[in-house]
Amino acid sequence: MDIKGIKEFVAKYSLEERSFKGFWDYFNMYQKEHKDDFEKDFNGFNSKEIELFIDTVSLRITNWPEEGYNHIVISVRVHYKGKYMCYYTIVFALNGEVEDDHLSLL
Questions:
Q1: What does DSSP assign to residue 29?
Q2: Is residue 55 a contact partner of residue 87, using CB atoms and an 8 Å limit?
Q3: Rounded (5°) CA angle 35-39-41
Q4: Comparing C-alpha atoms, which of 32, 1, 25 is closest to residue 90?
Q5: Is 35 left (phi over 0), alpha (psi -120 to 50) or beta?
Q6: pTM of the model
Q7: pLDDT score, position 66
Q8: In this predicted structure, what is the pLDDT of residue 1?
Q9: N or C of the chain: less Cβ packing under 10 Å?
Q10: How would you write the pLDDT of the chain (106 residues) with one tens digit per residue?
């Protein structure tokens, strides 16, 4: 396994920072477009009480064994008021471009 290569890829394309930014973009959209659900899930929301952690970084090999569709997938663990509330997953192509993302509430 070339873990060092994956770490270099993450650093080269600033994937940690971009994952956190992607979370905030997605989260703010969720807050605006789903106000009732947001208020239920994040009652009395205060952005200063959000903590973000990189939970996992993984190489996803798809279309096995041809390996023709591969990605780096980063999961961000989200704590709110000290409680694990959700995770945000962002999928990057091997050229560093974002392919997909989603937020999963617990």
A1: H
A2: yes
A3: 120
A4: 25
A5: alpha
A6: 0.93
A7: 87
A8: 67
A9: N
A10: 699 999 999 999 999 999 999 999 999 999 999 999 999 999 899 999 999 999 999 999 998 888 889 999 999 999 999 999 999 999 999 999 999 999 999 9
- To 10 degrees, the CA torsion angle through 38, 39, 43, 49? 40
Q: Whole-angstrom Cα distance, residue 70 to residue 9? A: 13
What six digits make up the tokens of 98? 């974002």
Angle at which helices 15-33 and 3-12 pack, to 10 degrees? 60
Q: Which residues is 87 bridged to in the sheet?
A: 77, 104
Both tokens of 24, joined, read: 């905030």
Peptide bond before residue 65 is cis, with ω within 30 degrees of 0: yes
Using CA atoms, how far apart are residues 54 and 74, in angstroms rounded to an integer? Answer: 7
Strand partners, 70: 61
